[in-house]
Structure formats: structure tokens, C-alpha cells
Amino acid sequence: MRPIVAASMLALLLGACAFPDTMLWHSAPAQAQALPPPAAPPPQAAAPAPLPPAAPVERRRPFVIIRFEAPDPDYARPLYEALQGALQRKPGVAFDLVAVTRNADDAQRNLASVYQTVTNMGLPPDRLSLSAVAAADGRTDEVWIYAR
Hints:
Elements: H1 3-15, E1 64-67, H2 76-89, E2 95-101, H3 104-120, E3 128-134, E4 141-147
Parallel strand pairs: 2-3
Antiparallel strand pairs: 1-4, 2-4
């Protein structure tokens, strides 16, 4: 075959072949050419906002429940005995004080009262955490104490 015919046939054969990355091999890398930016995807209808996660369900059992059915319940002595027993079993125990009520003012007042009582008994404040949750009904007015 003549060199021109052979070259033409080779070009035809190679023209049917495609390289996966569409690059030809060169001894030196080719100059990169700027490509136009990709077209923006077509606008889609806005998806509804996801719902916030549900509040976690409390799985712990309260160590102590103080009911504030009367204005100033006398809970100091039973609370002292319960805390003393917990500290004897586990000296480094800490406690979560949780107000359970529908009224924010009552929650703050009740937590302050129990917090003051517990710290007056000698428990350091750094071993107490305070929080409040909404009660399922309007009558509940309690402070739940969890050992942790």
C-alpha cells in the first residue's frame, strides 16, 4: 500500500474510535481551554420545609417528685433523705431538676425553691442542672429530680 492510502485508511479506522476522556496522548500536556459554565438546572417547585424533629420522649424515671399543690409544700426532710441515700450509693452523683408545669412563672419559682433547698443542704451547684418542660395538663405543678 502506498503511504497516503495507508494513512487515509488509518484515519478512517481511528475516526470510528473514541477515547473515553476525549484526550489524545501527547508528550506535553495541551493548553487548557476555558469551557463555558454549565447551564443552570431548570427551576423546580420549592419543596415544603421539613418538619422539626419531635421532642424526645423522656425515658428516665424521676428519682424524686415534688408536688406544688399547696403554696409552700414541706418537702425538705424527705428530699434530704432521698439525696443522702443517693450520695451514699454513688458519691459523685449529679441531679437534673426539671419543672413540669404549664406556667413559666410557676416553673421558675418552683425550680428556684428546690435549687435553693438542695444547695442549702450542701450539694454544690455544679452538680445540678435546671430545665423545664410543659405539662400535659394545666393542673400539674411539679419538680422532678433525676439522678445522673
